[in-house]
Design goal:
There is one protein chain. The chain is built from 3 helices and 2 strands. α1 crosses α2, α1 packs across α3 and α2 packs across α3. The chain has 85 residues and is mainly alpha-helical. It has a two-stranded antiparallel ribbon with strand order 1-2. It comes from Paenibacillus elgii. Keywords: Membrane, Transmembrane, Transmembrane helix.
């Protein structure tokens, strides 16, 4: 149970840092930041591998970079959808 809480907390922190680094805003508040943390960890692992400190099952540095990239791409998609509407 404690490992699940640590994983969720790390996803939240990674998503919040990634959202702060990327231009634009991550919609959804806490849940949106948590989703950005999970997707960012996956994306960061695919692009950069697993290096740096690992906390709660997340390689922190690639996960933060991946979360920032995810928030940035999500902002571009949102702008594109608003422009065409």
């Amino acid at each position: 149970m404690i490992s699940l809480l640590i994983t969720l907390l790390m996803a939240l922190v990674i998503g919040a840092i990634g959202s702060a680094l990327a231009p634009g805003a991550m919609p959804g508040g806490i849940i949106g930041s948590m989703i950005a943390g999970f997707v960012g960890a996956w994306l960061g692992y695919l692009l950069l591998g697993s290096w740096g400190p690992v906390i709660g099952g997340f390689a922190v540095v690639p996960a933060i970079i991946g979360a920032a990239l995810f928030v940035f791409l999500l902002g571009l998609v949102a702008k594109g959808l608003n422009r065409t509407a």
